[in-house]
UniProtKB/TrEMBL annotation:
The keyword DNA-binding applies. Keywords: DNA-binding, Transcription, Transcription regulation. This is DNA-binding transcriptional regulator, GntR family. The keyword Transcription applies.
Length: 216
């Protein structure tokens, strides 16, 4: 599989450059990337497996819709995996990676000025990426990332329904408290806090979908 094309198309989906339900044209994509349709098709099949693309026989290819009822179970499944990621990070982290996490947190703090939605999503991804570097467990990374990217699209989809400043403040607090548990090597606290964050996200999104039926 062409990893560069895969990353480009996936990023466009995650950041809503390609919107939910938008048709995707293999031929046009192949022309854009200067390749045959085969590598594009391989990428789209991979993204279908990741639940980011829908391929419907005789109907075509499109970006998967964002549906809370389907993703609720994904949130619930993510919680123990993210808890394990937090626990292993606390167990294995060193000063070098603590500095990397703090650098991501500092970048997050600048979002209050730039008010960039894309940057908010990027720093959240970057923070988890550093944790995965610490843990160095490909099986955990593959499974947890698969679920993470499915739920991550919800946030971009409903930004207009949320207080952006509050979102940024919550993200900064999340990073600060996470770094604190990692620095203290408190495995139980690191695990439980990450689970708590996932369920808090689930409740927040549930409330927005329940009271904003127009986004369904």
């Amino acid at each position: 599989m062409n990893f560069s094309i895969y990353q480009t198309i996936k990023q466009r989906i995650l950041f809503f450059d390609y919107e939910p339900g938008q048709p995707l044209n293999e031929k046009q994509m192949a022309a854009e990337f200067g390749v045959s349709r085969t590598p594009v098709r391989e990428v789209l099949l991979r993204l279908e497996w990741e639940k980011l693309v829908s391929i419907i026989p005789r109907a075509g290819i499109m970006v998967a819709e964002v549906e809370f009822n389907q993703l609720r179970e994904v949130f619930q499944t993510r919680a123990p995996l993210e808890g394990l990621l937090g626990r292993l990070t606390a167990a294995r982290i060193n000063d070098f990676y603590l500095s990397k996490l703090e650098a991501v947190q500092q970048r997050c703090e600048t979002i209050m000025k730039t008010r960039s939605r894309r940057t908010l999503l990027e720093v959240d991804m970057n923070f988890r990426e550093v944790m995965h570097e610490v843990v160095n467990n490909d099986s955990l990374r593959n499974i947890s990332d698969l679920l993470y990217f499915q739920t991550q699209r919800l946030w971009h989809f409903i930004f207009d329904k949320m207080d952006f400043d509050l979102l940024v403040e919550d993200e900064i607090e999340y990073m600060s408290r996470s770094v604190e548990t990692f620095r203290d090597k408190n495995l139980d606290k690191a695990e439980n806090y990450r689970k708590q964050v996932i369920f808090a996200d689930l409740n927040r999104v549930r409330n927005i979908f329940e009271y904003s039926p127009d986004i369904m």
